[in-house]
Amino acid sequence: MITDQKSRCPWCLGFPEYITYHDTEWGVPVYDDQIHFEFLVLESAQAGLSWATILKKRAGYRKAFADFDYRIVAEFPESYVQELLQDPGIIRNALKIRAAITNAQRFMDIQQEFGSFSNYIWGFVGGKPIQNSLKRGEFYPATSPESDALAKDLKKRGFKFLGSTIIYAHMQATGLINDHLTDCYRHSELKN
């Protein structure tokens, strides 16, 4: 139950974990590669599902995916994929699980080329968050020219299950785009 009377983005008001995620993580600029990888895995898993479903399984994903250590995930053998397909703590979709492994491998290729995944991804927004000014009642965009360009480049580099819509969600979650509504208390807190 919310008792603080703060104005928030309406999408987060469904359950307490959503509010906590909104208030502490969503839209906060991320420069840590392991956190970027975590969100890429979770957002890829979300395809066709709700973010609420994924948030509820986040602890299961942390356990199953070695706390999102991409170096370990990149080496997952097929025998472990078969174990994961039986794990009720995650989304048991073989294509999504295998995509996470492939994406971990490609993630490290990007690190080698750019010094870090963070350097690479922030280059698509000129190194600072895009500040949108969405008002209550307006629709959130599903993609942007930046998410289109990033998704196209990731696909060219061999990433899977990361189209422009999923990448736009990643950019929102990791603060490359500030999509908090202008009357949400977090919008001004995250505006640089």
Automatic annotation (TrEMBL):
<keyword id="KW-0862">Zinc</keyword>
<keyword id="KW-0479">Metal-binding</keyword>
<dbReference type="InterPro" id="IPR005019">
    <property type="entry name" value="Adenine_glyco"/>
</dbReference>
<dbReference type="InterPro" id="IPR011257">
    <property type="entry name" value="DNA_glycosylase"/>
</dbReference>
<feature type="binding site">
    <location>
        <position position="184"/>
    </location>
    <ligand>
        <name>Zn(2+)</name>
    </ligand>
</feature>
<dbReference type="GO" id="GO:0046872">
    <property type="term" value="F:metal ion binding"/>
</dbReference>
<feature type="binding site">
    <location>
        <position position="180"/>
    </location>
    <ligand>
        <name>Zn(2+)</name>
    </ligand>
</feature>
<protein>
    <submittedName>
        <fullName>DNA-3-methyladenine glycosylase</fullName>
    </submittedName>
</protein>
<dbReference type="InterPro" id="IPR052891">
    <property type="entry name" value="DNA-3mA_glycosylase"/>
</dbReference>
<dbReference type="GO" id="GO:0008725">
    <property type="term" value="F:DNA-3-methyladenine glycosylase activity"/>
</dbReference>
<feature type="binding site">
    <location>
        <position position="22"/>
    </location>
    <ligand>
        <name>Zn(2+)</name>
    </ligand>
</feature>
<dbReference type="GO" id="GO:0006284">
    <property type="term" value="P:base-excision repair"/>
</dbReference>
<dbReference type="Pfam" id="PF03352">
    <property type="entry name" value="Adenine_glyco"/>
</dbReference>
<feature type="binding site">
    <location>
        <position position="9"/>
    </location>
    <ligand>
        <name>Zn(2+)</name>
    </ligand>
</feature>
